[in-house]
Design brief:
Elements: H1 3-13, E1 16-17, H2 18-24, H3 41-54, E2 57-62, E3 70-75, H4 77-88, H5 99-105, H6 112-140, H7 149-180
Antiparallel strand pairs: 1-3, 2-3
Helix pairs in contact: 1-4, 2-3, 6-7
Length: 181
Amino acid sequence: MAIAHAILAALLHKPCSGYDLAKRFDQSVESSVGFFWMASFQQIYRELGRLEEKGWLQAETVPQDHRPDKRIYSVTEAGQQALREWIAEPDDPMPMKDDLLVKLYAGHLVPPEVMIRKLETQRQQHQQRLTIYQEIQQSYFQHPDTLSAQSKYVYLTLLNGLHYEQGWLAWCEAAIALLQS
């Protein structure tokens, strides 16, 4: 996936400025695309210009008092069509790249306690993210059957995150138990 598609998808939910869009790529923002796609401010601003040149975005300039004018971006029909075509393309599973797994693969070179500490740190980080996802679910998705069509698709991304984090936690527990035995 290109960053262009992530930007278009994020702007479908609500037109906004480049600054506000960049905040949607931050994992601390609820209902954020940042939980499954990372992008820096520089990448986002560079891509906004490209997407506008392609005609996939349009920007409206909004004057502000005591500040530079703000540009609010929204997806054009051509941008929506580009997203439709991209969505219809076949998908291959993303290759896994994980430093921890490489370290574990060669973990016999260090005392087990080193790897156990790493696994405990991972467990804590995945538990924190799971807690955030559960809070989002509790706040916005208590009754999935009553969601709008658009919200159901957003909820599916959250469900994936919930299952992913639960899987990591179960794996961390099993890995720690095995190394401690």
